[in-house]
User: What shape does this take?
Amino acid sequence: MNLLTALQDGQDDSADALRIDGRALSREQLLGAAGAVAARVGGARALAVLARPGAETVAAVVGGLLAGVPVVPVPPDAGPVERAHILRDSGAELFAGADESAPGTEALPVDLGERHEFGGPEPEPERPAFVLYTSGTTGPPKGALLSRAAVAADLDALAEAWAWTPDDTLVHGLPLFHVHGLVLGVLGALRIGSRLVHTGRPTPTAYAEAAGSLYFGVPTVWSRIAADEASARALAGARLLVSGSAPLPVPVFTRLTELTGLRPIERYGMTETLITVSTRSDGERRPGSVGLPLPGVATRLVGEDGAPLPADGESVGELQVSGPTLFDGYLNRPAADAEVRTADGWFRTGDVAVIGPDGFHRIVGRASVDLIKSGGFKIGAGEVEAALRDHPGVADAAVVGAPDPDLGQAVVAFVIPAGPVTGDQLTAFVAERLSAHKRPRRVVLVDELPRNAMGKVLKKRLLEG
Assistant: This one.
């Protein structure tokens, strides 16, 4: 199985088949520079790559994959403790892209001008392609082992669902240390053969000027584009706008549709599972829904007692998945791996969802922070957030369950106002649209919400504050 099919087959060898933060490369140039990396790293236990948004990062990643060496992307903004943990835990012996070596590693230079035709054998499909480290919200980051076969299966399933072909030009400006930006946003283009434009930073102007047919973004990116009418209208010539990594607010979905004529694609996945559920290019795109399981993927809902829940559009339960895109476990963490596997081999996502009779999935949020148990009711934070965002005086909102001596948990909303609005007005607004027990008991007006690099709200910080 050739993971980098289009790259190694020599498809589309135009001088700017890849443009990354202003630097244009042909596929031949990328393959030559990556071949030089592969020749140096062969046999290494792991290759760490400082994942800056540049062509050198892509060459280093491709070089590791050619040599069959697991690639460990390191966030460029990782602090010294986190970086040291990732390098030590992964066993990386070589560190590409860093200005100097870190303890226990050797600095590996990457020269885009080098040319080397790497002639090593194609690695076995079951070999790890990546060790991707999770966000570490429950302790030190854990390294998820993703096989070459899992990556290939996911990209091929997405190509089918999105009608993604070599004729596309993929545009995004997402970080290169996550599934979204690196696996989908770089390897997808190299496997399928589409042209790639990485904008460096995902600004509305950069997206508008890229003239792509397929765009990837997180909700923060799409929200900024929707607020920039000229940039949004410039995307009208595209084929697909894809949003992921966090729920896309319905008002942003609606505004993008109005300005571009395109209803966004939404999809769902995790580091440990890659992308498992998505709306399709030839199917319905429903605001607030992430669509249907990809080919080969199965999903189910279970209650707190482990019993299956019906796909009735009402029952809220933990989403579990199975299929060929799942990871092979956490590196050096057998106990953590056991916690996320069921006895019959399904992966426990820790996300709360609702599945409709038509199979469409709606993600409510994380079980740990988004399933609120208040006064004997189970309330999905995402539903309350969606209702709040429908108010014209709300720019964004995050809802959490705060400890309450009477209710167990009280619904608390943190709201970024878009105009004059009061907490009482918002509470009444939600109560008119949802069941009364779902209304916020407290509304906190804030200037911004704490987010990670992919735009996800860090709700534990809201609770701690």
